[in-house]
């Protein structure tokens, strides 16, 4: 009954959003969104396995029968139905929990325009997000992959778990969380349900306080959305070709990333551009979590020996820029430092 109600309400909210947004799109823009969802479904290995009978999941390190069980559970939620239909790219309820709070946190002068920027859930099981432009009009839209939510919870569990078990009384606990963190960071670019299942296994039933996990996961989802809205609100430049960037252009792109982070964190801290932050426990906690999230991606790159491209700041730079630009208090800086040292143990 609860699930039925949740599905019903989720569909209703998402359909209203989609109706409002679609009414403002040209036919060409709408066609681009549907084509984008179709292409995503065709190219994402996991979605391909659903939509094209016979497509294989070879190479996946998790048992296909467990993956199938997880995915059949998935099919009972409204979000998944929507992900299977390219025409529902705007009306997927999966983004409801992040979109509404993100809009509420936007600066007042930008709220009306930014909340009209289409935010679509593309059928991909990936952990990423983009601000893109319509080819037909040059207007912005934001893509968040459907599978993003599968990574938020594992990230929350390992981040909170490592941080809260840092005491001499619980060395075993800390070790379990560090092992699970190693799984997250080595598989961050794998199909996201795989991250979910593997981290669940690694945690061996251990979980940090549930409310904290939900809060952390939600905050990071909202941060990701606000970051992309920041690119739009700050009218950031998007190059036509990533392959031929000059040094100056790389600097512009790096600064834009830092600025989008600052925009998102500023919304979450509820601070206006030129006023200092009124730091309190909740604000410090939120920035600590965002920094842990950035550290996890940094570890992923380090662990998989991937280079951050020239046009992208390092995740350490992004973390430090946040602490600097909001003049983070000493306690927060040392918490971030501690969280980082703990994380580093997972891959040492
Ligand atoms: Zn960005």
Question: Can you give me a brief rundown of this structure?
Answer:
This protein is mainly alpha-helical and 348 residues long. Helices cover 64% and strands 4% of the residues.
Kindly provide the radius of gyration, computed on alpha-carbon positions and rounded to a whole number of angstroms: 20 Å
- Return residue spans where pLDDT drops below 50 for at least 5 consecutive residues: none
Kindly name the structural category.
Answer: mainly alpha
Percentage of residues assigned to helices: 55-70%
3D architecture notes:
By secondary structure, the chain is mainly α. Strands 1-3-2 form a 3-stranded mixed beta sheet, sandwiched between helices. Helices cover 64% and strands 4% of the residues. The protein has 15 helices and 3 strands. A hairpin with a 6-residue loop joins strand 2 (130-133) and strand 3 (140-145). It has 2 domains: 2-92 and 119-146, no CATH class; 150-347, no CATH class. The chain has helices spanning 2-22, 27-43, 45-51, 64-74, 78-83, 96-105, 108-114, 149-164, 171-187, 192-203, 210-233, 247-269, 281-303, 315-325, 330-347, and strands at residues 119-122, 130-133, 140-145. Helix 6 (96-105) crosses helix 11 (210-233). The protein binds zinc ion. Residues 227, 231, 257, 260 line the site of zinc ion.
């Amino acid at each position: 009954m609860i699930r039925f109600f949740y599905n019903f309400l989720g569909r209703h909210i998402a359909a209203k959003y989609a109706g409002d947004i679609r009414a403002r799109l040209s036919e060409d823009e709408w066609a681009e969104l549907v084509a984008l969802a179709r292409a995503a479904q065709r190219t994402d290995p996991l979605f391909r396995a659903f939509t094209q009978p016979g497509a294989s999941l070879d190479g996946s390190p998790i048992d296909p029968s467990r993956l199938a069980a997880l995915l059949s559970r998935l099919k009972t939620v409204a979000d998944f139905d929507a992900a299977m239909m390219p025409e529902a790219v705007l009306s997927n309820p999966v983004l409801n929990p992040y979109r509404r709070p993100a809009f509420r946190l936007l600066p007042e002068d930008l709220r009306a325009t930014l909340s009209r920027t289409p935010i679509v859930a593309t059928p991909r099981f990936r952990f990423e997000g983009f601000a893109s432009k319509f080819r037909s009009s040059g207007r912005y839209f934001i893509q968040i992959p459907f599978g993003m939510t599968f990574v938020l919870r594992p990230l929350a569990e390992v981040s909170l778990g490592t941080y809260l078990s840092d005491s001499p009384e619980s060395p075993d606990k800390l070790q379990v969380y560090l092992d699970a963190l190693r799984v997250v960071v080595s598989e961050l670019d794998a199909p996201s349900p795989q991250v979910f299942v593997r981290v669940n296994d690694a945690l061996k039933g251990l979980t940090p306080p549930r409310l904290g996990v939900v809060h952390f996961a939600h905050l990071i989802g909202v941060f990701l959305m606000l970051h992309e809205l920041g690119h739009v609100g700050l009218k950031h430049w998007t190059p036509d070709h990533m392959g031929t960037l000059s040094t100056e252009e790389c600097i512009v792109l790096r600064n834009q990333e830092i600025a989008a982070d600052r925009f998102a964190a500023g919304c979450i801290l509820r601070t206006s551009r030129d006023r200092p932050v009124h730091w309190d426990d909740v604000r410090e906690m939120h920035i600590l979590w965002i920094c842990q999230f950035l550290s996890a991606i940094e570890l992923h790159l380090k662990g998989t020996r991937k280079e951050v491209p020239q046009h992208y700041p390092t995740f350490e730079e992004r973390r430090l820029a946040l602490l600097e630009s909001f003049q983070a208090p000493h306690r927060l800086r040392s918490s971030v430092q501690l969280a980082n040292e703990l994380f580093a143990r997972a891959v040492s």
